[in-house]
Amino acid sequence: MPVDAQQPGDTRSQPSHVRRQQILSAAARLAAEDGLEGTSIATVAETAGVAKGSIYLHFASRDDLIEALQAQVWAEMMEAPRLIATDDALTWSERLDAIVEHWIGYEFEHRDLYHAVFHEVATDSEEPWSEARGLLQQIVVGGVAAGEFDCGGLDTHIVVDFVLHGYAGPCYHEAQLETVIADMQRLFRRTVGAAGT
To answer: Which residues does 70 contact at the CB level (< 8 Å), separation at least 6?
Structure first.
């Protein structure tokens, strides 16, 4: 379920997992609209339509709530790429293109939420880049082994870190989404030495 989905109805009659999602959805909406720095548990509770004490049944603290929101945003960003990476019907270049399109499209669509939960507030957790890095490493190594990519002798870990960090900035440009996706796909393909680039 998307982090910014809204659940209608009286939350008092909802099962625990639904109420937890309603709280996360309320926090996501507040994050996207106003940021999280000044958002309190009381504000989240009011927005979710639950008692303040109910939040503590699901989250130990405000930081715990924000970390759960971060984890949910990241899970949404990674769900489709996990499937794309193992889709043998696609070439390695097509997998790379599809993941770039998904990530950039997600960040464009949820720009304010992403910025709020990963850049505005400090928590004890870090954005979980390791899964994204591992997934890209799998694609780059697979593409090299298949002869689709030629990294020119560069360490594939360095190539992966370069493209992983390089893609984030353009997500905040005001260019058309289609232009950003197409240009970033071309840059990714050039970086890994994809055939035909």
So the answer is: 117, 118, 123, 125, 127
The Cα–Cα gap between 49 and 120 comes to 25
- In this prediction the pTM is 0.79
Is residue 169 within 8 Å of residue 104, measured between CB atoms? Answer: no
Separation CA 63–CA 47 (nearest Å): 18
In the chain (197 residues long), the average pLDDT of successive 10-residue segments reads 46 76 93 85 92 91 89 90 95 96 88 82 62 92 96 94 78 76 92 88
Query: Residue written as tokens 């999280």?
Result: 36
Determine the 3-state secondary structure of 35 from DSSP: coil
16 CB neighbour count, 10 Å cutoff: 10
**What Rg, from alpha-carbon coordinates, does the chain have?**
19
How far out from the chain centre does Cα 171 lie?
A: 12
Q: Give the residue from 11, 30, 17, 7 showing the smallest Cα distance to 58.
A: 17
Identify whether the C-beta of residue 95 lies closer than 8 Å to the C-beta of residue 87: yes
d(CA 136, CA 43): 39
Structure confidence by residue, pLDDT tens digits, 51-105 = 988 899 999 998 899 889 988 888 888 999 999 999 999 999 999 999 999 988 8
